[in-house]
From TrEMBL:
This is 6-phospho-beta-glucosidase. The keyword Protease does not apply. InterPro entries: GH (IPR017853), GH_1_N_CS (IPR033132), Glyco_hydro_1 (IPR001360), Glyco_hydro_1_AS (IPR018120). Keywords: Glycosidase, Hydrolase.
Length: 463
């Protein structure tokens, strides 16, 4: 087996606007759902006043410091950087007729900076931060009007950045709406399944419209979806457990099935009927859904188990999901189970199902780092985690899976999504900041920085 990854494989990292940029009111930016969640996706939602402290308001000040950060990414050898555009920088309330020039100009500078180092931008249109204006006025994705607003936004950024950005993604972890409806589709957490699935339907239609617009506007552009790769194993080989696992895996694969195949899968008919859910799907919606994605991207952090046995059904929460722990796997300090082989399995499952190129756009270990007296940060645990996962990516490529690239999550420390912690660090680059917002924001290279540099330089042979 060759140790090198294929030529053209994209190596890099992934961030999201709301977790790095800060500057939450600069350049005419409007309030987003993320701004209303200063304690993260699982924290209380607040009506903002300027006196409230939110760690994301400054985050790592990427808004101002991106030239320094991109230079560091280039030093590691990145050929790709995944980031998102904050929708509220472009359409502050979400329903304006024209885009906000200051927001567009900011991203022009960002993409120009990447181009200096030949770093390919991979851009997510919506990463956990829709305009709050659309929620207040229309009820978020519960209202069809939001589809048109999103399409206007997508067309505006495709048009402006068509020569600078060729790789796009629609909605980050689109299946997360099932677990965090406010973050995903702008609905109250206690919304019923009828409302959530109708809002999801609107988002899937919007995704189809964005695919169409991208193909019309961006010459040689490619646009993918983004799934939270929540692979579940049966806890036992009891047929009932295997069946339940099949059904629970379909709950997230459903999104991929629609976005890749262009129509609702047959199994959803029964799923909806059993739950008395009735979705309004127009003929025009069906046509929009037929605009299928060019590639599939996903995040991968962990796997979990499923059981039908009540006593065994003690779920632990990791990120946005609650899953039954696997007795054969270790866990991170945040209880996320570490399963490198699961990544190989997932890559194979997705490729068997769709036969479309795959892109791993998030993977990583959130951990507490210690700065030694001499300033060094010896994050061997992170190196081990990433190394083990990348070895499995290489195995999957050998299995025949087409993998376009790998962007690990948070190549520079950033604010975590679930609880807005700063102490949960993912980066190769350390940022001097703590949970209370103290620190100089200075950047420094961790041990893993040099490890990743070697991996990229050797096309994976150093793993
Ligand atoms: C993914 C998200 O769910 O997981 C990221 O797309 C997020 O935005 C990442 O940061 C890790 O989760 P957390 O809660 O550790 O930041």
């Amino acid at each position: 087996m060759t140790k090198r990854f294929p030529d053209g494989f994209l190596w890099g990292g992934a961030v999201a606007a709301n977790q790095v940029e800060g500057a939450y009111q600069e350049g005419g930016k409007g309030l987003s759902t993320s701004d209303l969640q200063p304690k993260g996706i699982f924290g209380a939602r607040v009506e903002r006043s300027d006196d409230d402290f939110g760690i994301k308001d400054t985050a790592i000040d990427f808004y101002n410091r991106f030239p320094e950060d991109i230079k560091l990414f280039a030093e590691m050898g990145f050929t790709v950087l995944r980031t998102s555009i904050a929708w509220t920088r472009i359409f502050p309330q979400g329903d304006e007729a024209e885009p906000n020039e200051a927001g567009l100009a900011y991203y022009d500078c960002l993409f120009d900076e990447m181009a200096k180092y030949n770093i390919t931008p991979l851009v997510t249109l919506s990463h956990y931060e829709m305009p709050y204006g659309l929620i207040k006025k229309y009820g978020g994705w519960g209202n069809r009007i939001t589809i048109d607003c999103f399409e206007r936004y997508a067309r505006a950024v495709f048009t402006r950045f068509q020569h600078k950005v060729k790789l796009w993604l629609t909605f980050n972890e689109i299946n997360m709406s099932l677990h965090a409806p406010f973050t995903g589709v702008g609905l109250a957490e206690e919304s019923d399944q009828q409302a959530i699935y109708q809002a999801i339907h609107h988002q899937l239609v919007a995704s189809g419209r964005a695919v169409k617009a991208c193909h019309e506007i961006v010459k040689d552009g490619k646009i993918g979806n983004m799934l939270l790769g929540a692979l579940l194993y049966p806890l036992s080989c009891r047929p009932a457990d295997v069946l339940e696992t099949l059904q629970q895996n379909r709950e997230w694969l459903f999104f991929g099935d629609v976005q890749v195949r262009g129509a609702y899968p047959a199994y959803m008919k029964r799923f909806f009927a059993d739950r008395n859910i009735s979705i309004e799907i127009t003929e025009a919606d069906k046509r929009d859904l037929q605009n299928t994605v060019d590639y599939i991207s996903f995040s991968y952090y962990m796997t979990g188990c499923v059981t039908t046995n009540e006593e065994e059904n003690q779920k632990a929460r990791g990120n946005i999901l609650s899953m039954v722990p696997n007795p054969h796997l270790p866990s991170s300090d945040w209880g996320w189970q570490i399963d490198p082989e699961g990544l190989r399995i997932l890559l194979n499952v997705l490729y068997d199902r769709y036969q479309k190129p795959l892109f791993i756009v998030e993977n990583g270990l959130g951990a507490k780092d210690v700065v030694e007296a001499d300033g060094q940060i010896n994050d061997d645990y992170r190196i081990q985690y990433l190394n083990d996962h990348l070895v499995q990516v290489r195995e999957a490529i050998e299995d025949g899976v087409e993998v376009l690239g790998y962007t690990c999550w948070g190549p520079i420390d950033l604010v975590s999504a679930s609880k807005a912690e700063f102490s949960k660090r993912y980066g190769f680059i350390y940022v001097d900041r703590d949970d209370a917002g103290n620190g100089t924001l200075a950047r420094s290279r961790k041990k893993s920085f040099f490890w990743y540099q070697d991996v990229i330089r050797s096309h994976g042979a150093a793993l």
